[in-house]
Amino acid sequence: MKFNKLTTWIGLAMLLGIATGYVCHALAPDAAAAREAGSYFSAVADIFLRLIKMIIAPLVFSTLVTGIAGMSDGKSVGRIGARAMGWFISASLVSLLLGLFWANLLHPGNSMNLPLPDAHATTNLATSSLKFKDFIVNIFPKSIFEAMAGNSVLQIVVFSLFFGFALRAVKERAGPAMMSAIDGLVHVMIRVTDYVMLLAPVGVFAAIAAAITVQGLGVLGTFAKFIASFYVGLSSLWLVLVLAGYLVLKGRVLELLGLVKEPTIIAFSTASSEAAYPKTMEQLGKFGVRSEVTGFVLPLGYAFNLDGSMMYQAFAVLFVAQAYGVEMSFATQLSLLLFLMVSSKGMAGVSRASLVVVAATLPMFGLPEAGLLLIMGVDVFLDMGRTATNVIGNSLATSVIAKWEGKLSGSTVGEERTFHEPLQVPTLARDAEAVA
């Protein structure tokens, strides 16, 4: 039997990574040796993530520009954008509410019998980027090359919006040739993506092995209640998102979940939404989402629709409050919800974005920033869950909006297809066989 499915290889890589990490951690004579061993695995994982990051900027730019320029009229762009933002804001609100609900119900921090960190300890996380004025200014790129070099998704989205609308305006003159070139760039980048994704199992193995080598399996037991409570919350969020998707997509929502299984596993195992972005695009195309909708909505989702991260931020703040024995009233928690709704938007391009948001939020509500040190040790395992949830949320959002716009093939039996087919991209299975 040939194991040519990416999901199978990634699953095996995860198990092998756990086993290898456990053995390396057990054989390491001390913590320093464990960190040294883990650094070699981290180097391999970093290579894979670097390969992924090198394709994100041109892929986001080309797909978003072709998506805007390919719209039938300007009203379509505004309507799709408004519907997307409406879904994103609603999903963010639900995510935050569920995070607060489960943290209040399960009280994961009340039973922590760990020594609290010094009140003056620092997390070494920069939080100045969370100032509202800085956030507004940083939305707009001063150089598209700098934005692409730093993989600042939000800035790339802003430039692509301007470029896409400008391309529509000159469609009669420079439009056809440039449209053809950018559309060609989309296909080239998807082919590059397929080649890079052949290395996904190696990257997954290295990422898991690095985490377990340094931290050991014991870290999961120490924070078992916190981790378990958070994943209970994530499960409820998945249920709500799927039910919301079912109201629009009906039974096809199960087909969608089956198709995005691979990018979800990639996101979970690497804790990187960027690693899952190209494969998510490909699977949405297979589901029948028209390419211009995917190219427009999905990049916006990566900047504004981080459902798992939103839940984590609310959950983590209450966990720290409970660990310190600080009571937070209903009014205070409502203020927390409103603050996170604003402060977390556009944080996708910030390194360790969710931790940065939490670190900036704690002192605003009278909680020591050093409380974040309680969860930083296990954050990698939490990051895996919230990143996978982000992929599910954005896939559902893109598909639902495509259905609303009548740009989802196969949504009605016998429906006449009056739109272009989604991009036909090579499958990973065929590429794997060709390489073999």
What does this structure look like?
This protein has 436 residues and is mainly alpha-helical. The chain has one domain (6-409, 420-435): Proton glutamate symport protein. Helix content is 74%, strand content 0%. It has 20 helices and no strands. Helix 12 packs antiparallel against helix 19 (379-404). Residues 126-130 and 411-436 have low confidence and may be disordered.
Percentage of residues assigned to helices: over 70%
Under the CATH scheme, which class? Mainly Alpha
Strand content: under 5%
Structural class: mainly alpha
End-to-end span in angstroms? 14 Å
Q: What is the name of the CATH topology?
A: Proton glutamate symport protein
Summed up, the domain count is: 1
Shape: globular
Low-pLDDT residue intervals, each spanning 5 or more residues: 126-130, 411-436
CATH superfamily: Sodium:dicarboxylate symporter
- The whole-number mean of residue pLDDT values reads 78
Number of strands: 0
In short, what is this structure?
With 436 residues, this protein is an all-alpha fold. Helix content is 74%, strand content 0%.
List keywords for this structure.
0% strand; globular; single chain; Proton glutamate symport protein; 74% helix; 436 residues; mainly alpha
Summarize the SSE layout with pairings.
Blueprint: H1 6-27, H2 31-69, H3 74-106, H4 132-138, H5 144-149, H6 153-169, H7 175-197, H8 200-215, H9 218-222, H10 224-249, H11 252-259, H12 261-270, H13 273-287, H14 291-304, H15 307-323, H16 330-343, H17 353-364, H18 373-376, H19 379-404, H20 428-435
Helix pairs in contact: 1-8, 1-12, 2-6, 2-7, 2-8, 2-13, 2-14, 3-10, 3-14, 3-15, 3-16, 3-19, 10-15, 10-19, 12-13, 12-19, 13-14, 13-19, 14-19, 15-17, 15-19
